[in-house]
Amino acid sequence: MKKNNSCDLKTCFMCQLTLKEWHPAIEGHKRNFIAKKGEVIIKEGDPVSGVYFVTSGNVKVHKQWGDKELILRFANDGAIIGHRGISSNTSTYPISATALETTKLCFVDIEFFKTTIKVNQEFAYGLLIFYADELHASEKKMRNLALMSVKGRLAVAILGLRDQFGLDEEGFLNLALSRQDLAAFTGATYETVFRTMNELLAEKLVVVNGKQIGILNEGGLMDLSSK
């Protein structure tokens, strides 16, 4: 990753919730980087060194599930990645993180991050809620993998990405996503996702332009996501 000095101490999750008096300490400990599209930021199994905050850009957080990749979530502006490495019984990252586009990141080492939690009550509380929300989302995703059809999981994924990334002026998701990544995010094979997306297209629920997905019938997708 290429070093980068741009950081306004306002964008990321940590800076938003820490005391202003703590910002000089963050300024002294942070390191800023730029990751190119496709560059691995964190590799599953590597020793935990610290956590990253996405200043701008998009990152997929993923892990190996047997011989397949499973995308757990996507992280964009202000989001934290690498926090799963904080544990009482492991010292390695349980996930990988890869840039989906040119992405600006802020890194702080693990000891300073832990000190920041201890010193800043609002940040500690915000991190607790974040962990709780992430656990809830993970449990819901596991339920969907076990009980929901691929078409339903695709509908959930498209609506969720719409809520997270929004739509551009032409009504497409503000996230260019390959079919392979969409398959990894929904826990299905590439072939199944390709076939199911064609069904959604035929039913005029979505429209596709290359790697961009647009929503034509939100109600229809919501019906599928509730089955």
Automatic annotation (TrEMBL):
Pfam families: cNMP_binding, HTH_Crp_2. Residues 148-219 form the HTH crp-type domain. Residues 31-117 form the Cyclic nucleotide-binding domain. PROSITE patterns: CNMP_BINDING_3, HTH_CRP_2. InterPro entries: cNMP-bd_dom, cNMP-bd_dom_sf, Env_Response_Regulators, HTH_CRP, RmlC-like_jellyroll, WH-like_DNA-bd_sf, WH_DNA-bd_sf. Keywords: DNA-binding, Transcription, Transcription regulation. This is Crp/Fnr family transcriptional regulator. It comes from the Bacteria.
